[in-house]
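Model it.
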Amino acid sequence: MHSSGTVLAVVPARAGSKGIPGKNLRTVAGQTLVRRAVRSATRAARIDAVIVSTDGDAIAAEALAAGADVVRRPADLAGDEASSESALLNVLDELEATGAALPEVLVFLQATSPFIDPGDLDAAVARVVDGHADSVFAAAPSHAFLWRTAPDGSAVAVNHDASTRPRRQDRAPEHRETGAFYVFRTDGFRARGHRFHGRVEVVLVDAAGAIDIDDPSDLALAEALAEHLDGRHPEHLDDEHGTPTPTPTRAAPAPNGAP
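Modeled.
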């Protein structure tokens, strides 16, 4: 296994999936979800190494072919109830056991987000490496009026006063966590056991590509959008389609203000 370097990206990718069987090896525009995640990470300038954590032989082979290292996940960390944090901690434990230096910063990528922009990854890593934040995550701006259903079945406004209907442009945007990636300091993560710690910030990403593959309709949507989105972000294309050009970051990080 290669040295972890200063910034290590980890892609957890279980072999089992109830919503879409074999989900992590399903394809979008001819490339598996695992390969797309690895390609995004390897093409980020500030990521030093990429590891895929998996319990599946086919996923491991695909990860290696895409340019990542592999950590084989034990069965007790590969079930439906296993958390992503447990997979990340297992990778760090395995690195430590081999004598490799632990990374200063950990980048957690979800293979189920097929359109991760390396420029966004670099922006998030920079916020953490440069000391501005301890944890940064991908988010898309939202002006949605949210409601929840009360026990009696009535609708209750969540993030607004229902008696006042401001115009969209008069409302400050909120930020929807996309699940695409999280970047955080390794020492804080190991001490607390979760990805959000210390000063938390968001990096704004393109809402059009903020798709999380959870069921077949999400996969169909990603396939329909791939030609447009891959054309804007060539890092998702295989080498035979041409050498990708660097993709600029679209938006500066916005502070979340979490303690």
